[in-house]
């Protein structure tokens, strides 16, 4: 095997084991823990090693694995990080001699139903600054907590600045150890609490950074939901962004999205949003552009309940009028569900789109007491229609390949849902057995057969009416 330079994926391990109080973790209630799914996205078999770090920088080894191309492995800290103390919270670094992708799942089961997913940050994507488009401080009962990691081997000083309703609220975090993380809350910087207090956050460091945000209920005894997303570095900045999934009052749960776009251009910028509708009253139509102007580092909120018709389901493209850079997240809320289901994903910079995408974790009616399944939403951001092919590699070692007969139009998206039960429209089986995919956890590789650039996101949700978890999204890895 050809040995390559080490590739680092930086993950935030919010809570590994034990019960942690809100005061120490920034999260409400108790029972929080995490798991990390690592996928080999290289073309050869490669080993990977994971080490966790507490907030003082103390290292805890979490073992190693050798993964085949496309294969995934789920690291549960309580099983793998055997020297880690109960109640641990911190960050982690996964290193490999090949290319890896990672998804972190944070949840409080079986105590509660809350759950969120975010992607690990590749070492090449870390930077001296990380930004977050959306901050809430008890806005409609929800607050955002941030976890920013020192993505270097040196001591780091971090300067955080909240920008809320045009007012700046700074806070410094000094002497952060190598590979460790700090917890940043709006209250730390004196951001006012209550409805209307929402904005954005930027963090700069003396060394490189990575980060995630967790939006949660403000103070429940047991949390029912959570929204997780990664922070953005200059690697994510672009004048064109693609958002594969938007909707308004879609389905029986009346699922509705909101789009939060942050201006990182250095000056005022006009932001345009254009929708392509796949299903619903506006199916086949283009809506927009809808425009808003904001100052540097401020965010503009585009609400799909204002822009779309009830029942609309599709994708969105974000552009800037002056060519400046932006970043964006989509919040997804089921307005007719108990407990309330919410999730978040990051929109994709146009420059990152490729013809091949990796998804470390996809579930097909997987689980025992709680059964989860993953829908995969793929957007064509090229210049011509394309057909895609999905290769599932299950943790049992089976390989299943599927495609479809309805090409995805330019700017449009297609949803692959319950593939094992052949419930995706115009689905075709290329190789393998759908029955061997049922009830499994897989890593997935997506390829555009017409060499058009694509982006994709995964949306995991529980089935049935009892023992359900919160929905959760993460972004596919373009390669």
Question: Could you write a compact summary of the structure shown?
Answer:
3% of the residues lie in helices and 53% in strands. By secondary structure, it is mainly beta. Strand 19 and strand 20 form a beta hairpin.
How far is the N terminus from the C terminus? 20 Å
- How many β-strand stretches? 35
Helix content: under 10%
The coarse overall form would be globular
C-alpha Rg (nearest Å): 21 Å
Helix run count: 3
The portion of residues forming beta strands comes to over 45%
Q: Helix/strand/pairing class, anyone?
A: mainly beta
Q: Return residue spans where pLDDT drops below 50 for at least 5 consecutive residues.
A: 1-8, 10-24
Q: Main beta sheet: strand number and arrangement?
A: 7 strands, antiparallel
User: Average pLDDT value?
Assistant: 89
What does this structure look like?
With 479 residues, this protein is mainly β. Helix content is 3%, strand content 53%. The chain is built from three helices and 35 strands. It has helices at residues 22-25, 77-80, 304-307, and strands at residues 7-11, 33-40, 46-54, 59-67, 72-75, 90-96, 100-107, 115-119, 121-122, 127-136, 142-150, 156-164, 167-176, 181-184, 198-217, 226-230, 240-247, 255-263, 269-279, 286-294, 299-303, 313-320, 326-334, 341-346, 348-349, 356-364, 372-380, 388-394, 399-404, 413-416, 427-431, 440-448, 454-462, 472-475, 477-478. Strands 10, 11, 12, 13, 14, 15 and 16 form a seven-stranded antiparallel beta sheet that branches. A six-stranded antiparallel beta sheet has the order 31-29-28-32-26-35, with no helix packed on it. It is globular. It starts with 6 loop residues before the first strand and ends with a strand. Mean pLDDT is 89; it is low at 1-8 and 10-24.
């Amino acid at each position: 095997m050809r040995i390559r330079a080490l590739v680092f994926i930086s993950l935030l391990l919010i809570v590994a084991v034990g019960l942690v109080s809100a005061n120490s973790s920034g999260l409400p209630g108790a029972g929080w823990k995490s798991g990390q799914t690592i996928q080999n996205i290289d073309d050869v078999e490669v080993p990977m090693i994971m080490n966790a770090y507490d907030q003082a920088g103390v290292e805890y080894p979490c073992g190693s694995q050798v993964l085949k191309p496309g294969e995934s492995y789920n690291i549960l800290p309580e099983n793998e990080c055997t020297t880690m103390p109960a109640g641990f919270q911190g960050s982690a670094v996964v290193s490999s001699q090949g290319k890896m992708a990672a998804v972190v799942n944070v949840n409080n089961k079986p105590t509660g139903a809350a759950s969120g997913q975010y992607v690990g940050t590749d070492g090449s994507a870390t930077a001296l600054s990380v930004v977050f488009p959306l901050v809430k401080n008890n806005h409609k009962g929800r607050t955002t907590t941030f976890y920013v990691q020192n993505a270097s081997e040196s001591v780091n000083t971090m300067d955080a600045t909240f920008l809320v309703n045009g007012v700046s609220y700074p806070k410094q975090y000094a002497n952060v150890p190598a590979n460790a993380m700090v917890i940043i809350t709006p209250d730390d910087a004196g951001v006012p609490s209550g409805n209307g207090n929402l904005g954005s956050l930027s963090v700069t460091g003396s060394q490189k950074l990575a980060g995630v945000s967790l939006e949660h209920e403000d103070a429940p005894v047991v949390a029912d939901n959570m929204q997780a997303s990664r922070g953005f570095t200059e690697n994510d900045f672009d004048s064109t962004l693609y958002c594969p999934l938007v909707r308004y009052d879609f389905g029986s749960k009346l699922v509705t999205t909101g789009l939060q776009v942050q201006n990182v251009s250095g000056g005022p910028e006009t932001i345009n949003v254009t929708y392509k509708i796949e299903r619903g009253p506006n199916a086949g139509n283009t809506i927009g552009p809808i425009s808003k102007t904001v100052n540097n580092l401020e965010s503009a909120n585009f609400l799909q309940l204002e822009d779309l018709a009830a029942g609309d389901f599709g994708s969105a493209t974000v552009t800037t009028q002056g060519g400046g850079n932006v970043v964006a997240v989509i919040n997804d809320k089921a307005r007719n569900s108990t407990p309330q289901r919410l999730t978040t994903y990051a929109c994709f910079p146009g420059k990152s789109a490729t013809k091949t995408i990796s998804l470390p974790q996809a579930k097909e009616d997987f689980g025992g007491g709680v059964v989860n399944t993953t829908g995969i939403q793929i957007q064509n951001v090229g210049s011509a229609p394309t057909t895609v092919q999905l290769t599932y590699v299950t943790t049992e070692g089976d390989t299943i390949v599927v495609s479809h007969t309805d090409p995805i139009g330019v700017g449009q998206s297609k949803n692959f849902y319950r593939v094992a039960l052949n419930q995706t429209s115009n689905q075709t089986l290329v190789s393998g057995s759908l029955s061997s995919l049922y009830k499994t956890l897989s890593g997935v590789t997506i390829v555009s057969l017409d060499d058009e650039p694509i982006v994709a996101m995964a949306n995991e949700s529980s089935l049935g009416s009892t023992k359900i978890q919160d929905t959760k999204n993460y972004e596919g890895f373009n390669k």
